[in-house]
C-alpha cells in the first residue's frame, strides 16, 4: 500500500507556554479532502502550517509524500497553502502577483496564462490587489492554485467572503487537486465541509 | 535567476510604495544638514568630518532600507509564500541582498555628491570614491540583509536590527572611513588599496557565512 500523502504523528506544538497541539495524529491519503473542524483557537491553522513545514513542532513527526517533511526541499513546490486572508503584494496587480508567485516557485508563466486563469475565476485585469475585496483576493488565490497545480493543497477557511460563483469555483478547484493529490482545509462551516470533504477531522480542546 | 526576479520585484514594489526610499533620503538630508551646521563653517573641519559623516549617514539609512526589504513581506504577509518555494532558501537571502545592494549604491552615489558639495570631498577622485562605496556598501548590505531577515518575525525587529548590525559592521565602516579619508587627503594609492583589500576580505567572509547560515535562521 502506498504511503499516505500526509502523515502527522503524535505532534505537540506550543507557543510560549500554551500548548496548541497535543499529541495530534492525522493521515491523509491521495484523493482525500479532509476538513479540520473545531472552535476558534483549537489549532487548525497551526496544524496547516505544521503540515506546510512552515513551523516546526516541539515533538512528533510530519511526513509528506512518504518522506520526512524537513527533507522536502525540492518537493516544497508541490504544496500550496492558502491563508485566510490570502497573501498578495498590495502594490502589484492580480496578474503581476500571479506571474511573480509562479516565477519564484520555478514555474514561470506568461501574462496570457495569468490573465486566462484570472478570467476563469472571474477577475478583471489591471487592478492592483490593494483595490481588491476579500472575495476577489480569495478568487485570485484560486487562480494561483490553478496555475501552480499543487499535489497537496492546504486551505484556511477558504469559503469565507466568497459569493455563490466563487464558492462553486472553489469546489471545482478542490476537486481538481484531489483527483491527483489531496486537500486539507480548516473551516467552521459544517455545511461546506459536508459538501466538499471526504472526511472530517474534529479538533477539540482549548487553546 | 530567482534571486534576480525577487530583487527586481522588490524594486518595483519599493518604487510603487516609495515609503522606504523617501524615509531614507529624508533621513540622509537631515543628517547632512545637522552635521554640516555642527562642523561648519570652517573648511578644514568639514573636509576632515566628511568621510565619517558619509559613512554614518549611509549606515543608518542602510539599516532603514534593510528593514524595509523584509518589511515588504511582513506588510503583505507573503513571507510564508516565499518560504514555501521549492529548493534551498539561500536564494531568498541573495535576492534581498541584491535589492538592498542596488538601493545602497544608488543612495551612496547620491550621498557622495551631497557630501562633496557640503564637506569638500574631492569629486575629481570619483573612481576611487566609487570603488570604496561599492566595497564598503557590499560589506554593509551583506550583514544588514542577513540580520534583517533573522529578525523579520520579531515585534522589536527595528530596535534589534541596529543592536545586532552595528557591532558587526564596525570593521567595515572603519575601513571604509579610512579609505575615504585617504582619498580626501591625497594619501598614497598603496595605502588606499590596502583598505580596499581589507574591505574585500570582509565582503567575501561575511557573504560566505551569511549565505551558509541563512537557510537555518529563516526557518520557523
Automatic annotation (TrEMBL), chain B:
Kindly give the membrane topology term recorded for this protein: Multi-pass membrane protein
Gene Ontology MF, one: heme transmembrane transporter activity
Entry annotated with the keyword Cell membrane? yes
Q: Name one GO cellular component term.
A: plasma membrane
One of the Pfam families matching this protein, by short name: CcmB
* InterPro entries (alphabetical): Cyt_c_biogenesis_CcmB, Cyt_c_CcmB_bac
Positions of transmembrane segments: 21-40, 52-72, 93-120, 126-148, 160-186, 198-218
According to the lineage, what is the superkingdom? Answer: Bacteria
What does it do? Required for the export of heme to the periplasm for the biogenesis of c-type cytochromes.
Q: Which family does it belong to?
A: Belongs to the CcmB/CycW/HelB family.
* Protein name from the UniProt record: Heme exporter protein B
Amino acid at each position: 500500500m502506498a504511503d499516505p500523502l500526509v502523515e502527522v504523528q503524535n505532534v505537540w506544538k506550543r507557543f510560549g507556554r500554551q500548548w496548541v497541539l497535543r499529541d495530534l495524529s492525522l493521515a491523509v491519503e491521495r484523493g482525500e479532502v479532509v476538513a479540520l473542524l473545531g472552535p476558534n483557537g483549537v489549532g487548525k491553522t497551526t496544524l496547516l502550517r505544521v503540515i506546510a513545514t512552515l513551523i516546526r513542532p516541539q515533538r512528533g513527526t510530519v511526513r509528506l509524500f512518504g518522506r520526512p517533511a524537513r527533507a522536502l526541499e525540492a518537493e516544497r513546490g508541490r504544496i500550496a497553502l492558502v491563508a485566510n486572508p490570502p497573501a498578495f503584494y498590495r502594490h502589484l496587480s492580480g496578474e503581476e502577483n500571479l506571474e511573480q508567485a509562479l516565477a519564484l516557485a520555478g514555474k514561470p508563466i506568461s501574462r496570457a496564462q495569468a490573465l486566462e486563469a484570472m478570467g476563469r475565476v472571474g477577475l478583471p485585469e489591471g487592478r492592483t490587489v490593494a483595490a481588491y475585496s476579500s472575495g476577489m483576493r480569495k478568487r485570485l488565490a484560486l487562480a494561483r492554485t490553478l496555475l501552480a497545480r499543487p499535489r497537496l493543497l492546504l486551505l484556511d477557511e477558504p469559503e469565507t467572503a466568497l459569493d455563490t460563483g466563487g464558492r462553486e469555483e472553489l469546489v471545482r478547484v478542490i476537486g481538481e487537486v484531489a483527483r491527483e493529490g489531496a486537500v486539507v482545509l480548516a473551516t467552521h462551516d459544517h455545511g461546506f465541509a459536508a459538501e466538499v470533504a471526504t472526511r472530517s477531522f474534529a479538533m477539540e480542546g482549548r487553546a | 535567476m530567482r534571486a534576480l526576479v525577487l530583487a527586481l520585484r522588490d524594486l518595483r514594489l519599493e518604487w510603487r510604495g516609495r515609503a522606504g526610499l523617501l524615509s531614507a533620503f529624508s533621513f540622509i538630508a537631515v543628517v547632512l544638514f545637522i552635521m554640516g551646521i555642527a562642523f561648519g563653517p570652517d573648511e578644514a573641519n568639514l573636509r576632515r568630518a566628511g568621510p565619517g559623516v558619509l559613512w554614518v549617514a549611509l549606515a543608518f539609512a542602510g539599516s532603514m532600507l534593510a528593514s524595509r526589504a523584509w518589511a515588504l513581506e511582513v506588510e503583505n504577509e507573503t513571507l510564508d509564500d516565499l518560504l514555501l518555494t521549492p529548493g534551498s532558501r539561500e536564494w531568498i537571502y541573495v535576492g534581498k541582498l541584491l535589492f538592498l545592494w542596488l538601493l545602497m549604491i544608488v543612495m551612496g552615489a547620491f550621498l557622495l555628491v551631497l557630501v562633496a558639495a557640503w564637506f569638500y570631498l574631492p569629486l575629481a577622485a570619483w573612481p576611487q570614491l566609487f570603488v570604496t562605496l561599492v566595497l564598503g556598501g557590499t560589506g554593509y548590505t551583506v550583514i544588514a540583509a542577513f540580520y534583517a531577515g533573522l529578525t523579520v518575525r520579531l515585534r522589536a525587529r527595528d530596535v534589534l536590527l541596529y543592536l545586532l548590525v552595528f557591532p558587526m559592521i564596525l570593521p567595515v565602516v572603519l575601513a571604509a572611513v579610512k579609505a575615504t579619508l585617504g582619498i580626501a587627503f591625497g594619501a598614497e594609492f598603496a595605502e588606499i588599496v590596502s583598505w580596499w583589500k581589507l574591505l574585500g576580505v570582509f565582503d567575501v567572509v561575511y557573504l560566505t557565512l551569511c549565505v551558509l547560515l541563512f537557510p537555518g535562521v529563516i526557518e520557523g
